[in-house]
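User: As part of a screening pipeline, I want to sanity-check one entry by hand. Below is the sequence and the SMILES for flavin mononucleotide. Please return the complex as structure tokens so I can compare it with the automated output.
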Amino acid sequence: MIDLSTEYLGLKLANPLVPSSSPLTGELTSAKKLEDAGASALVLPSLFEETIEYEQKQLERFVNSQALGHYEAQSYQPVPEDYLSELDSYLERIQLYKTSLDIPVIASLNGISTEGWIDFGKELQQAGADALELNVYYIAADPETEGGEVENRYLQLLTDLRQHVSIPITMKLSSQFSSIANMVLKLEQAGAHGISLFNRFYQPDIDLETLEIKPHLELSSSMESLLRIRWIAMIRGRVDLSIAATGGFHRSDDIIKALLVGADITHLCSVLLQQGPEYIAVLRQELEYWLEEHEYESVEQMKGSISRSCAINPAALEHCNYMHVIKSYEG
Ligand SMILES: Cc1cc2nc3c(=O)[nH]c(=O)nc-3n(C[C@H](O)[C@H](O)[C@H](O)COP(=O)(O)O)c2cc1C
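Assistant: Here is the complex for your manual check:
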């Protein structure tokens, strides 16, 4: 009997297959299907800073317009007792999941400013979240903003939250840092328990008829997993953090490679949106077969077994790889 269990963010998980934030993890019915198919934990869709800010402003306007005797207000209307803010609904969902599911539930915050997030973080913890994922989605579009400044925003947010939240915190990162490995080291020093590599960015498109910018969401492909696998290989062994591989994990082969280079879990999103929650059972079975065929007794035994931390000079080796790849092209 192969032992598929793995440790992630201090949690003992039954296997390394964890659905990441998506509409599938946002509804109890589909969350239950994910659990039944073998998901070992799940990450809720993010609570977005902008949504909460907008709601708070709307609420303030509502209350103020009445206090000032707004001409449209016929009479004083108190905020309805059953009014549920986005945050309230999120907290309710965590509580519901915790009573309805057996697997750990990871909450997700998406934002960049410190104010507010500390209180939200505390509330998510109190509601029963087993861990917190921070998706610091920040595009430095201002040419005056220096790289170090951007990094400090991440570190400050983490440091502040760390002081008020005791559940494990993991950072979902983009691949667009000048020195990813250094950034990861700094996050570890600032108290992160884990990292998710890497976030995917969605590039807006242009409608050639209306000449308007239009949002464009394309699901990932398996090829994207290679970037993640490469960086996990380079980082594993350099830091003592839990590592989640995120982005492009569609096939059991992708998952096996991520584990071999040292990921603790792989996140799944696009593949489950395409194939349905039940597909986790297929991936789990294929992973088990592979381990059996290759005479591994457990996921823990295979994890990191071909990590690049064994290499003496990873940067030089990377450069060498690059030359070989370019020279290998046969047009
Ligand atoms: C429809 C959709 C909604 C998503 N919502 C969130 C979200 O709320 N928060 C978040 O951190 N990531 C979100 N993601 C990103 C996924 O969690 C995941 O990181 C990304 O899709 C890469 O993984 P994949 O290649 O398996 O799809 C979303 C992705 C999709 C496709």
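Points to compare against the pipeline: The mean pLDDT is 88. The longest helix spans residues 49-67.
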